[in-house]
């Protein structure tokens, strides 16, 4: 007997088969970096060749290099990725320790996987690291994914009207070594409450975006 399976059911089954692994950067071998680089090229490539360009060869990072990664695997290899890097940022004039989250990607055939799956793996680690806040930025086009996370689980707060300055990952002649962006800021209260996040409309990474 043949039973028809809807595309939504197939995607749900595929998501259920993703197994997550937490990997510190020093644990990754060259083969791991090569596999991740290929994954990022395929994941970011559909949004434009420029977005896939940083991942040439075996380079598995775009700007700053993460110290910890949540990597989802399935039968086809790498399925999803989320990176973490502890760093100091400056919110207006206040230096603040955060765990920056970034380098999020999901394989195109698993687009419905959602960042909430990666965050369920990463969130206990964020709490264990002893940092006051998790921090990230998203382009307005990706805001709906983070909104779901906030609305369903109440883990983060989205902030608008904030400009973020970062250094470029590479310095080129005749181009500014820094980049200033209007993005949506995502803050995860960990060791401190969201009311203790410094007021201000300008954030300086003093380094490249994760």
Shape: globular
| Total helical segments | 5
Helix-strand pattern = HEHHEEEHEHEEE
> What does the largest sheet look like?
6 strands, mixed, barrel
What is the CATH superfamily? Gcn5-related N-acetyltransferase (GNAT)
* Helical content class: 25-40%
Structural class assignment:
alpha+beta
Architecture, according to CATH? 3-Layer(aba) Sandwich
The CATH topology turns out to be: Aminopeptidase
Number of domains: 1
Q: Strand order, main sheet: write it out.
A: 3-4-5-7-6-8
Mean pLDDT: 86
Distance from first to last alpha carbon: 50 Å
> What share of residues are in beta strands?
25-35%
Low-confidence stretches: 1-11
Strand tally: 8
- Radius of gyration equals 18 Å
CATH C-level category: Alpha Beta
Task: Give the helix/strand layout.
Elements: H1 7-16, E1 19-24, H2 30-44, H3 49-52, E2 68-74, E3 77-91, E4 94-106, H4 115-128, E5 133-138, H5 143-153, E6 157-167, E7 178-189, E8 202-204
């Amino acid at each position: 007997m043949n039973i028809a399976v809807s595309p939504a059911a197939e995607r749900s089954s595929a998501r259920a088969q993703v197994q997550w692994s937490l990997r510190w950067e020093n644990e990754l071998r060259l083969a791991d970096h090569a596999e991740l680089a290929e994954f990022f090229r395929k994941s970011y490539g559909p949004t434009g060749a420029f977005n896939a360009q940083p991942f040439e060869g075996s380079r598995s990072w775009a700007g700053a290099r993460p110290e910890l990664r949540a990597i989802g695997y399935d039968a086809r290899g790498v399925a999803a990725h989320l990176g973490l890097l502890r760093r100091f940022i400056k919110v207006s004039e206040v230096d603040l320790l955060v765990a920056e989250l970034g380098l999020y990607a999901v394989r195109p055939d698993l687009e419905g996987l959602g960042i909430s799956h990666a965050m369920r793996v990463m969130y206990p680690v964020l709490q264990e690291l002893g940092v006051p806040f998790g921090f990230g930025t998203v382009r307005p086009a990706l805001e709906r994914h983070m909104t779901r996370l906030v609305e369903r689980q109440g883990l983060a707060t989205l902030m608008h009207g904030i400009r973020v300055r970062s250094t470029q990952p590479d310095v080129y002649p005749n181009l500014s070594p820094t980049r200033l962006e209007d993005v949506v800021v995502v803050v995860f209260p960990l060791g401190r409450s969201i009311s203790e996040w410094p007021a201000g409309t300008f954030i300086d990474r003093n380094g490249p975006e994760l």
